[in-house]
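Entry 14. Ran structure prediction on the chain below.
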Amino acid sequence: MVSSASPEVVVIGAGPAGLSAAAILAEYGHKVIVVDRDRFPRYRVGESLIPFTYHSLERLGLIPKMRASAFQKKYSVSFVQPDGRQSAPFYFHTRYDRNTIAQTWQVLRSDFDQMLVDHARERGVEVLEELTVTRLLKDGDRVTGIEVKDKDGHLREIHAPITLDASGKESFASVRLGWRERDPFLNKVAVWTYYKGSQRGTGDDEGATTIAFVPEKGWFWHIPQHNDMVSVGIVAEGKYLTRDGVRDLKDIFDREVTRNAWIKDRLSTGTQTGPYHVTSEYSHHSRHCACTGLLLVGDAFAFLDPVFSSGVMLALKSGVLGAEAVHEALVANDLSPSRFEAYGATLREGIENMRKLVYAFYHHDFSFKDVVMKYPELAGEITDCLSGDVNRDFSALWEKIREFAPIPDSLPYG
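Output, structure tokens:
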């Protein structure tokens, strides 16, 4: 077993959360190693950004690269009923600056994540690919690093004063420490694929995200990408998708396409491309964000149902906030859990606000249209939350929404 030269920070996972944290810490002059089991570029789903992703991208210095990229620009989101009736688009520029927050992107994650890898390396981060983390290294209750295994089966230890778990939905540390808890209600399954040459909007509507409903509170995402590709998937309860004994992914997908007239029309002229994918979208969170020598970031801390495309925004935000907190802790030579209380509280506040809106969305009697018709003054707050401006006091909004749907209590934390 060979020990590596010790960094100040070791990061598990080279996704948006881990790479954003690593880049900022390296910018401050810290030695950072990121390990990932995959070889880049690699495939990932989670392709639609929301407006308030802008601030994290700006902090990372990536806005010029994003603007120069081929990624499809996104200006709005709209909702479609099963019979094909479409809401007026929610254009972000009606509330935010068109040249900054109001324009975001639909990304190909293999390209986007590669951009983040390259950016981190440019900042001095050592990104090690095709290494699988096998265990946390500990000295008593203190995490002192990780053990990794390469593709040939050789083991290696990487020691660091602090480890960042950015392992995504796998939640490597949270699972092993017994911290992870499933959401009692948000337990969905997604089946998706890609189409080339299908119908899409024009002008500012070309890159619009569309949420298209099917019965039983299921929904399609329709995300136009560059190179004339569209990501399209169905999300619903597993028992609904597999009703009547249907198990084949193509059969599940094709049956649900017939249940929304808009989706059926959009895909009628395109060519299905590549495999069909499936994953659980089980929302979960960790009861704690840190112990001595360990901090959780991104989906490893909390994963929320993807209906409002909040995943990449929350991942980048947690990476940025986590990096700032870790830098301050390293400078103070104090890596105790109390150093990260404000970080954890800020993320939990934002996630819980978005989670409340997700719960309302899935309630059988709820629609945003009904809320806004009765309380037009709430349209702005709903837009803000959907756009990712989640660290605000929305208590007045939740009070009114309770007239239309139950709002959940916050999940246990701390």
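The chain has 13 helices and 20 strands. Will compare against last week's run tomorrow.
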